[in-house]
Amino acid sequence: MKRACVIGWPIEHSRSPLIHGYWLAQHGIDGSYTKVAVAPDDVAQFLRTLPEQGFVGCNVTVPHKEIAFSIAEEVEEAARVVGAANTLWLEGDRLFATNTDTYGYMTYLSHVVPDWLAHDGPVCILGAGGAARAIVYGFLETGVEEVRVFNRTRERAEAIADQFGPRVKVFDWDNRSDASRDACVLVNTTAVGLKGNGSLGIDFAGFNPDCVVSDIVYVPLETQLIADAKSAGLRTVDGLGMLLHQAVPGFERWFGVRPQVTPELRKRIIADIEG
Ligand SMILES: NC(=O)c1ccc[n+]([C@@H]2O[C@H](COP(=O)([O-])OP(=O)(O)OC[C@H]3O[C@@H](n4cnc5c(N)ncnc54)[C@H](OP(=O)(O)O)[C@@H]3O)[C@@H](O)[C@H]2O)c1
């Protein structure tokens, strides 16, 4: 039996076992996917002994993504760019790592709004953490000419601009509404709105009517930002799709089948979020 897991600290909140468990059952695979609470001091040892523990690989969540990146022996470009890994697997006894957040975000965006790139205008990113870096990379790879980054702590936005070059422009956090009016896509990658905490205070008056508003926070599924954008008549993309799609490459690596993100899977995770 092939075994995979997700590690984090804490880990109780993780919905990854529900996602992978659904696919294992759907494909009748003799495998398991569990969650394991691993304290920060134990991560290195845990990852180095994956084979001895009988795991073929694992997902890594907060706060272990950076250390996982540094421990892996082979790192794919997607993880190198972000400086963090969320998906690890063994090839022989070598530990490989990637980051599937870029894939998850861009795949779902294109699924919900296939023509998002058809509109002129910059992409505006709120936040400058690990998720922001993955998403900035995705948009630049797709050929977007200008990505604007707004972050409460300006230096972190500047670090992203320094890494990716002149197509990334840093704007003041306080200017996030005014400087996003011409956006083709606005993305919240901050933790603001999680479990209803805080408000981004975006005023959608005067926004490009073709703007797509997306939030990677998915608890609640309809964040205040998404609700406000809908009220303003804008198209929206929720954060759950990114979570579901980022899980696909790991499952394929560990269990040998490329799974589908189905409406039934989505329904199950929504029931868990709202339950
Ligand atoms: N849907 C998905 O699959 C998915 C995947 C990854 C992450 N996420 C979610 O995305 C969010 C960010 O994740 P991350 O890994 O990038 O975290 P991170 O590296 O810790 O970055 C957090 C970001 O949120 C900002 N922030 C936090 N509190 C704020 C506040 N009160 N006002 C303004 N900005 C605030 C931080 O700004 P400062 O720099 O000023 O602190 C920073 O830009 C989390 O909610 C996470 O759950 C979702």
UniProtKB/TrEMBL annotation:
Residues 122-187 form the Quinate/shikimate 5-dehydrogenase/glutamyl-tRNA reductase domain. It catalyses: shikimate + NADP(+) = 3-dehydroshikimate + NADPH + H(+). Keywords: Amino-acid biosynthesis, Aromatic amino acid biosynthesis, NADP, Oxidoreductase. This is Shikimate dehydrogenase (NADP(+)). The lineage of its organism: Bacteria, Pseudomonadati, Pseudomonadota, Alphaproteobacteria, Hyphomicrobiales. Homodimer. Residues 239-261 form the SDH C-terminal domain. Belongs to the shikimate dehydrogenase family. Shikimate binds at residues 14-16, 61, 86, 101, 218, 246. One of its GO terms (molecular function) is shikimate 3-dehydrogenase (NADP+) activity. The active site is at residue 65. It comes from Hyphomicrobium sulfonivorans. Involved in the biosynthesis of the chorismate, which leads to the biosynthesis of aromatic amino acids. Catalyzes the reversible NADPH linked reduction of 3-dehydroshikimate (DHSA) to yield shikimate (SA). GO terms for biological process: amino acid biosynthetic process; aromatic amino acid family biosynthetic process; chorismate biosynthetic process; shikimate metabolic process. Residues 6-88 form the Shikimate dehydrogenase substrate binding N-terminal domain. Pathway: Metabolic intermediate biosynthesis; chorismate biosynthesis; chorismate from D-erythrose 4-phosphate and phosphoenolpyruvate: step 4/7.
